[in-house]
Design brief:
Immunoglobulin-like; three-stranded antiparallel β-sheet; 5 helices; 12 strands
């Protein structure tokens, strides 16, 4: 029912449905709060309940958001928070922001070096990527929740992720590229069911290794001791833990990748030579005698 595709410069309608423990629709005690972040995890809409209202059915709320013309393409997040009874619930959805429809037919698309190019995935590829993301995020413990003041003496929960969706997709793309290279070339894409089923483990492992190596550099810059009036604080050496996991899993990943691909020989592009399949000995003798070749 929800429209999960938005075009820059237009309005996208975002929906959320709240249910109770038995799965029945239930209205929130207060108007839900929604926050919107873009594909780079930059807050585009601060948490607000202005513009949020019930939509037809019980428990179903709608929020209309006007996407800026300068918005980056990619998957944006709409984060909903509501209070139901004594519980505060929070959930996050994604919607795709694209520039499709802005240009007239036949108008050429030009890019300059350094431009932020949008991911150009088909519907089937996006489905496969979403499955891999669902496996990759728990593996990295990527998604977290933090409490921030709401300005009224209370707190609201806000999603706090280690990596953005755009970064995780980049890791998955590079992991699939490695899968297609080692030890011989193949041409798998995210729309192939095998990539997000039987080969999902090795694709996710390759992406997690890239994520750990990238995060280790950031964590290393934070690891400095602080001394205050004789009290010394030494933060945990997270970069060393990440580097140790990276080094240990890298060898296992490469061995696993080679074993998988060695059992997957690609089809030949052509035959090496011509061979007579007839059973007559005369035909076989004449195969290399060009002067007396009869076929």
């Amino acid at each position: 029912m929800a429209n999960r595709l938005g075009i820059r410069g237009r309005i996208v309608d975002l929906y959320v449905r709240f249910v109770d423990a038995t799965g029945n629709p239930v209205n929130a005690d207060d108007t839900p709060i929604v926050e919107i972040r873009d594909s780079a995890d930059i807050r585009r809409q601060a948490a607000t309940n202005i513009g949020v209202g019930l939509y037809e059915d019980p428990g179903l709320y709608k929020f209309s958001y006007s996407i800026p013309l300068t918005a980056p393409d990619g998957y944006w997040s709409d984060i909903w928070t509501a209070k139901i009874g004594n519980e505060t619930v929070s959930t996050t959805f994604d919607f795709l922001v694209t520039s499709a429809g802005e240009m007239t037919a036949g108008e050429p698309v030009t890019y300059m070096p350094g431009d932020d190019l949008p991911w150009d995935f088909t519907k089937e590829e996006a489905y496969g990527i979403n499955i891999l993301l669902k496996m990759l995020k728990p593996r990295l413990k990527n998604d977290g929740i933090r409490k921030i003041p709401d300005g009224q003496g209370g707190y609201i929960e806000e999603s706090c992720s280690v990596f953005t969706n755009s970064e995780l997709i980049c890791f998955l793309v590079n992991s699939l590229s490695s899968f297609n290279q080692i030890p011989h070339f193949t041409n798998f894409t995210f729309e192939n069911p095998q990539i997000h089923t039987v080969f999902a483990d090795v694709i996710v492992q390759g992406a997690s290794l890239l994520a750990m190596s990238a995060q280790a550099l950031i964590e290393k810059g934070r690891e400095f001791s602080i001394t205050d009036n004789g009290v010394i604080y030494q933060p945990p050496m997270i970069s060393e833990i990440l580097n140790s996991q990276f080094s240990t899993q890298l060898a296992d990943y490469k061995d696993k990748l080679k074993v998988i691909k060695c059992n997957m020989k690609p089809a030949p592009l052509g035959l090496g030579g011509f061979r007579m399949t007839a059973i007559s000995p005369a035909y076989r003798r004449l195969r290399h005698l060009r002067e007396r070749q009869i076929v």
